[in-house]
């Protein structure tokens, strides 16, 4: 193994990248490892290479591919925790953190984003030009993984997935060549990059559509478990009207942390037209608890929206057709998981949250208008859906594997079984929220799986992104 590492580092230096190659023990290496938000992704690679531009990404890819027996990883922001999807232990990590520029072209009205930028930085750059983009809600999430994995934003109900607003991808392919993928050039690659994650190449620039920067009406409701039934009723009412009123968004967090004696619920509401107390949000007015509403710019909002960890993390997701009984059952299963983990972690030393938010098949029209994506949600004909996300943070990797993950699997198996019994189960998984044991690409539908397999074979005929980069979700593993 040592000889493979030495050969890879030598090849990177021979490619002119010696000054951005960091080995274990060096301060630059340690800083980049520590910059991963979750301990789950601090894998300790043999070395890290930080290209400064697309040409250097190309050089890095060619140097690593030309190293026999080497495996490697690619990182933009490093926020996806599942299965060392952006880092590696026995291999080299290409870290795109220095590709973090954001520019705006007032003639085309396109913003050009590099993958290593974080959303708070990106928003602050484009808002100077009087525009905004469909991007992440967490300020520290990286641009790259968010967009190629889909991207749910505050603006998704109006504009679709974040990836739907990409007009062009600049991509480094497995042979080091650089291509532009859009509706006119490499349209097959353009489509599969929207949801197909890192199966086809490394995206080094996203040219995305913009819209005028305006404040929105932002609301936060904080309450206890006595409000749960009213919250569920309001949510189901809200979701049923969302396709007709795509100027609103809602995210509900059910939270538990060590000092809590009961579940605390946070409801985030947004009206994109900045309408004070809009009628479309009237169903939330009677929810008991603390209500805090004000007009905000997106740049202000994202500064308060951050998933800090420094722990070992587990995320799991599910989708079902919207039904009050299923939302209620999901909360019941979440409470059962909490009680189970209390018996494992002394002093209930863990944090967990259950997130409930809309996933509307109507979003598909935005993707279709922009050249398509590979999610296939237009085939979800049973009505509007709920996207469910469980997040758990703990100090112990051993207990994460032996206690948290089995409990999470049981929780979601029970929810899925109940959904099926009600005829409300949905075979779709949002990739950016998936656990490593889930298989989101398999839920995109037969046609889209075929498109992704064909594109992978065409643009990566030697299987570099399938075999040489082991982390993440692979289309080659979908049957």
What this model shows, in words?
Helix 1 packs antiparallel against helix 3 (about 55-65) and helix 10 runs antiparallel to helix 12 (about 395-420). About 50% of the residues are buried. The protein has a seven-stranded antiparallel β-sheet with strand order 15-12-14-13-17-18-16. Strands 5-6-10-8-9 form a five-stranded antiparallel β-sheet. It has a four-stranded mixed β-sheet with strand order 1-2-4-3, sandwiched between helices. Strand 5 (about 100-105) and strand 6 (about 110-115) form a beta hairpin. The two termini are about 30 Å apart. The protein has 14 helices and 18 strands. About 30% of the residues lie in helices and about 20% in strands. It is α+β, with helices and mostly antiparallel strands and about 475 residues long.
From the structure above, extract its key features.
5-stranded antiparallel beta sheet; alpha+beta; 7-stranded antiparallel beta sheet; 479 residues
Report the mean per-residue pLDDT as an integer: 95
**Rg, Cα atoms, Å:** 22 Å
Silhouette = globular
Strand order within the widest beta sheet: 15-12-14-13-17-18-16
Low-confidence stretches: none
Short structural description:
The protein has helices at 2-14, 27-34, 54-65, 119-126, 143-148, 156-159, 187-192, 228-240, 298-303, 324-342, 364-369, 397-421, 446-459, 464-468, and strands spanning 21-23, 47-49, 72-75, 92-95, 102-105, 110-113, 131-132, 166-172, 178-181, 202-209, 211-212, 216-223, 248-256, 264-271, 290-296, 312-321, 351-359, 385-394.
